[in-house]
């Protein structure tokens, strides 16, 4: 090989080495960016999270090594800021990586907007983002019963509405329970757990016919996680339901084969239901019919008929009226052939 050839080969080798070195020196190195601004809103007594995404510039990968997160500046009173994870270990070939900001807002915190700086450092790089932390009012709610006073007759039912009034940060369901109902009174809550997207429950109050007529105060209690119980009062006035019967006339005289009419008057006290009538202890030879046999009105007619062969004499029978779980009677005297 000639000296000239050797020189030529050496020049080529050196050129190739130069090219390789140039490529290595000019190859883009790993880098990363993160959002310029971050926004996180957290209510007092709650914990909020926000995802941070690291991305490389176009055409590059994330740098190899550890990226650690921290906060520049002092968080407001009652607020603790941390990261999960606090350190990312990168292999250098990733196209993105994520960490989570965790903001714990205690009861000592004050509402308002606070500005902090999130710092990501590593692989010879340091990047910053502006975090706007909004501390919101603590979740809370109140209960309102509508109507707050309800009147229910003995043996009847009534419904009221329990409104759950949440503030903007209250997102949890509320359990509704009723306390103080007297024995025999049934109170059904629907739904017993008011979901976050609903604002009311219905109370169905069932009053037995035997419950003493007077005022009762029920306590409606709301229970939600992390919030003191809320209460509202409901006054239930139980009205007496009663009636009495009066026969006019209460003594009749009838000839065998004839009929006579008696009016049964109904004296009602808060009674809306129909009164149903039957005759009891009717003597032989006497028949009794009611027109009508059941009525929501204030009277019924009793037709008393004596058979043609009815034995003369003085008799009695009882008219029995039933309504709302109560039974009342009145006696009618019948003189046959008198």
Fold and architecture overview:
With 338 residues, the protein is mostly beta strands. The chain has three domains: 37-136, Immunoglobulin-like, CATH 2.60.40; 141-239, Immunoglobulins (Immunoglobulin-like), CATH 2.60.40.10; 242-336, Immunoglobulins (Immunoglobulin-like, Sandwich), CATH 2.60.40.10. 7% of the residues lie in helices and 58% in strands. It has one helix spanning 3-26, and strands spanning 37-43, 47-54, 65-72, 79-84, 87-90, 97-105, 112-122, 125-136, 141-146, 149-153, 157-166, 174-179, 186-190, 193-194, 200-206, 215-224, 227-239, 242-248, 251-254, 259-269, 275-280, 286-291, 294-295, 299-306, 313-323, 326-336. A hairpin with a 2-residue loop joins strand 7 (112-122) and strand 8 (125-136). The longest helix is centred in the N-terminal third of the chain and has 24 residues, at 3-26.
Low-confidence stretches: 11-28
- Strand/helix succession: HEEEEEEEEEEEEEEEEEEEEEEEEEE
Per DSSP, the total helix count is 1
**Number of DSSP-assigned strands:** 26
**Which topology of the largest domain does CATH recognise?**
Immunoglobulin-like
Shape: rod-shaped
Helix content: under 10%
Structural category: mainly beta
Mean pLDDT, rounded to whole units? 91
Radius of gyration: 45 Å
In quaternary terms, these chains amount to: single chain
Number of domains: 3
Tell me the span between the first and last alpha carbons.
Answer: 165 Å
Q: Architecture of the largest domain, CATH level 2? A: Sandwich
Largest sheet: 5 strands, mixed
Top-tier CATH class of the largest domain: Mainly Beta
């Amino acid at each position: 090989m000639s000296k000239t050839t050797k020189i030529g080969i050496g020049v080529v080798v050196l050129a190739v080495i130069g090219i390789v070195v140039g490529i290595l020196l000019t190859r883009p190195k790993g880098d990363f960016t993160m959002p310029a601004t971050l926004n996180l809103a957290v209510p007092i007594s709650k914990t909020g999270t926000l995802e941070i995404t690291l991305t490389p510039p176009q055409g590059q990968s994330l740098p190899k090594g550890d990226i650690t997160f921290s906060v520049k500046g002092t968080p407001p009173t009652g607020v603790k800021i941390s990261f999960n994870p606090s350190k990312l270990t990168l292999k250098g070939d990733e196209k993105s990586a994520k960490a989570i900001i965790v903001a714990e807002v205690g009861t000592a915190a004050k509402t308002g907007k606070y500005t902090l700086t999130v710092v990501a450092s590593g692989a010879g790089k340091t990047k910053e983002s502006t975090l706007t932390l909004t501390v919101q009012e603590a979740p809370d709610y109140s209960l309102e019963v509508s109507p707050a006073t309800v009147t229910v007759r003995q043996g009847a039912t009534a419904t009221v509405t329990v409104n759950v009034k949440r503030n903007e940060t209250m997102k949890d369901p509320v359990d509704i329970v009723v306390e103080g109902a007297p024995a025999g009174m049934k109170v059904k809550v629907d739904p017993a757990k008011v979901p976050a997207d609903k604002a009311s429950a219905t109370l169905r109050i069932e009053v037995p016919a035997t419950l003493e007529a007077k005022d009762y105060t029920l306590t409606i209690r709301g229970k939600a996680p992390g919030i003191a119980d809320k209460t509202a009062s409901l006054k239930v006035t139980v009205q007496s339901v009663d009636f009495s019967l009066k026969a006019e006339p209460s003594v009749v005289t009838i000839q065998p084969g004839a009929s006579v009419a008696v009016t049964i008057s109904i004296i009602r006290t808060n009674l809306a239901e129909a009164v149903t009538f039957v005759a009891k202890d009717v003597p032989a030879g006497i028949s009794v019919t009611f027109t009508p046999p059941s009525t929501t009105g204030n009277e019924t007619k009793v037709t008393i008929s004596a058979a043609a062969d009815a034995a003369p004499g003085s008799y009695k029978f009882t008219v029995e009226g039933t309504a709302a779980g109560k039974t009342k009677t009145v006696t009618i005297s019948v003189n046959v052939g008198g």
